[in-house]
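User: As part of a screening pipeline, I want to sanity-check one entry by hand. Below is the sequence and the SMILES for S-adenosylmethionine. Please return the complex as C-alpha cells so I can compare it with the automated output.
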Amino acid sequence: MPLLEKVTIENIGAEGKSIARVDNVVVFVKEAVPGDVADLQVFRKKGRYMEARVVKYHSYSDQRTEAFCKHFGICGGCKWQHLPYERQLFYKEQQVVDAFRHIAGVKIPETMPILASDPTTLYRNKLEYTFSNRRWLLDEEAASDIPLEHTNAVGLHVPGRYDKVVDLEKCYLQDSPSNEIRNFLRELALEMKLSFYDHKTNEGLLRNLIIRTSTLGEVMVILSVQFDVPELYELLEAVKIQFPDLSSLMYVINPKKNESLYDQDIICFSGRDHIFEQLEDLKFKIGPKSFFQTNSYQALRLYQVTREFAGLNGDEVLYDLYTGTGTIANFMAAHASRVVGIESVPESIEDAKVNSQLNGIENTSFFAGDMKDIFDESFIAQNGKADVIITDPPRAGMHAKVVEQILKMSPGRIVYVSCNPATQARDVELLARSYKVTRIQPVDMFPHTHHVENVALLELI
Ligand SMILES: C[S@@+](CC[C@H](N)C(=O)[O-])C[C@H]1O[C@@H](n2cnc3c(N)ncnc32)[C@H](O)[C@@H]1O
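Assistant: Here is the complex for your manual check:
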C-alpha cells in the first residue's frame, strides 16, 4: 500500500473522518485535523477513495488546541478535544448540510446555527466503565524493564481494542461522584485482591460499573460481576458507607461472555431500583435498563425544538415513532389531543406508560412492536390518522416500509429527529415526493465527539 508524503488535510466529513485529496482521490484519515501536513500510510484502497493513517506529522494545523484531559489520545471517550469547541460545532453543522445536499439532494432552508451544548464537559448522565486485567500501558511503562505491580484497570476502552482499558484517573464526561466512585472501587478491589475481568479468557470477578446521574442530583450505581462471592457484598457495603447519598445501589451477576445486561436480573442492594430525571415540569422514572437521552441538558433543548417544529395547537393526533420510554410523547402530550407512541422494546413501553401515570397524563397510548410490522393500515384504522408525526429512529434510520406508510398516511407535518444525518437524509429523499424540508436545527448532544443530532421539519406540499 502506498505511502503518501506531505499531504495537507483539507476537511472533516461524515462520521468525523478527516479528508485529504491526492491526485483527485479522496483519502479518509482518522486522527488528523484540517490544516495538518502529514505522511499518510494507506491501509485500504477502494475505487474512488483510500483510507490511511498518519505515520509522521510535518506540521500541525493552527486549528488545533491543547486537549484538557490527560487520557486524550489513548482513550476512546472524546476524540475531538484537539479541536476548539467552535470548530467542532462548525464541522458538525457542515456534516448535516452536506448530508442534505449530497444524499437527500433536496433544497434546504438556511440551517439554523447548531445549538451548542451547555455544559461541554461532565454532560453525560450515563457512563459505563469497564474492569480489565489488561491495562493499556503508557509508553514509559511499556519501555521500562521494571516489572509492573499489576495490570488491572477500570475505565474506558482503547478504541478498537475490546480487551484493553485506559485506567482513568479523571474523566470529564460525567459529573461527581462518578470519578470518585470508580476510583474508590478500584482502590478497594486492589486492596482486597479481587480479580479484574480478562476479556480474552472470560475469567475474573469484576466486569462493569455503570453510573447514572440526573440533573436532580440522583445517582444510580450498578456493579456487574461474573460470579457470586461474599466479597461482592463487602464491596457494595463499603460503597454504601463511603457514598451515603446514592439514590440507588444495584448489582448484577453476569456469567455470560457478553456484557449486555438487558437479559439479566439487576438486583437492588440499597436505596431505590430507579432514579428520577426532570425536564421542565415533567418527571421521568429511570430504571437500570431504561433508555434516556445521555445528555439531559441538551435533551431538554432537543425536545423544545421538536415541540416548536411540531407546531401543535392542542387538537392534533400526534404519533411518536420510535418512542423509547415515551419521553417525547409525554413531553408533547399537553399540546396535542392524543399521542400514540410506538417502540420495539416492550420494557421501554412499560416505562413510557409509568411516566405518563407519574405525570397524570391521560391522553397517551403506547404500543410495542417492530415499526415496519406494527405501523400498518389496521393500526392506523384503530388509532386514528396522525396530523403530525414525530420520528426518532435509531442510527440506521427508518425501514423503507415505514417511510412508505408515512407517505400513505400523509400527516401535515413530520418532525424527524436523528442522530445520523446520513440516514436521515436518505429517508428525507424518499419523503421529498410529498414533503418539503422547511426547517433544520442541528443540536450538539456530545461535545468533543463527532456525533451530531439533527431535527428536520417536513411539511406536506
Ligand atoms: C433514538 S432512540 C429514540 C429515543 C426516544 N425518542 C427518546 O428521545 O428518548 C430510537 C428507539 O428506536 C427503537 N427501535 C429500534 N429499532 C426499532 C424498530 N425496528 N421498531 C421500533 N422501534 C425500534 C429503539 O429501541 C430506541 O428506543
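Points to compare against the pipeline: The pocket of S-adenosylmethionine is lined by residues 291, 293, 322-325, 327-328, 343-345, 348, 370-371, 392-394, 419 (CB under 6 Å). The mean pLDDT is 94.
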